[in-house]
Amino acid sequence: MKTTEELLNFWEDQMKLSHTSSNYFFRKSPSHYHMMLLVMNAHKSNENLTVEELKTKLFKTSRPKSALMINEACEKNFFFLEKTSDDQRKKYIKPTKGFIKEFEDYLIRLKEISI
């Protein structure tokens, strides 16, 4: 029962942060959440993910809508675009240091309450 209560408290704390952190942005739609997971998976795997690859991988999201979502995530300082030196047209999407910390803190807290 304690774990259930801890989980409930965790979600309530997350909802209090919803308008001041990435919580609200990435929970807008399944596509927003999927985008976050794809970018963070690439980051954790030390893989480069291009903007075009991300647009292709996002399920049930048109390319124009994907582009808007990516731009908005960059404007909100969750992600940034990095150009390659060999091909200036190719841009990798990367999480910012601040978002990485927020994501790591979220995972740590989630693991703590699930043990």
Structural descriptors:
115 residues, mainly alpha, Arc Repressor Mutant, subunit A, 6 helices, 2 strands, 63% helix, 9% strand
Describe the structure.
By secondary structure, this protein is mainly alpha-helical. It is built from six helices and two strands; from the N terminus they run αααααββα. Strands 1-2 form a two-stranded antiparallel sheet. α1 runs antiparallel to α6. The mean pLDDT is 86.
Top-tier CATH class: Mainly Alpha
Order of helices and strands: HHHHHEEH
Q: What is the average per-residue confidence, as pLDDT, rounded to a whole number? A: 86
Q: Which structural class fits the helix and strand makeup? A: mainly alpha
CATH superfamily: Winged helix-like DNA-binding domain superfamily/Winged helix DNA-binding domain
Fill in the CATH topology.
Arc Repressor Mutant, subunit A
Helical fraction: 55-70%
Number of strands: 2
The figure for the number of domains is: 1
Radius of gyration: 16 Å
Main sheet attributes: strand count, strand direction, barrel closure: 2 strands, antiparallel
Distance between the termini: 13 Å
In DSSP terms (H or I, runs of 4 or more residues), the helix count works out at: 6
Low-confidence stretches: none
What is the approximate shape? elongated
Indicate the CATH architecture. Orthogonal Bundle
Strand content: 5-15%
What order do the strands of the largest sheet run in, or round the barrel if closed? 1-2
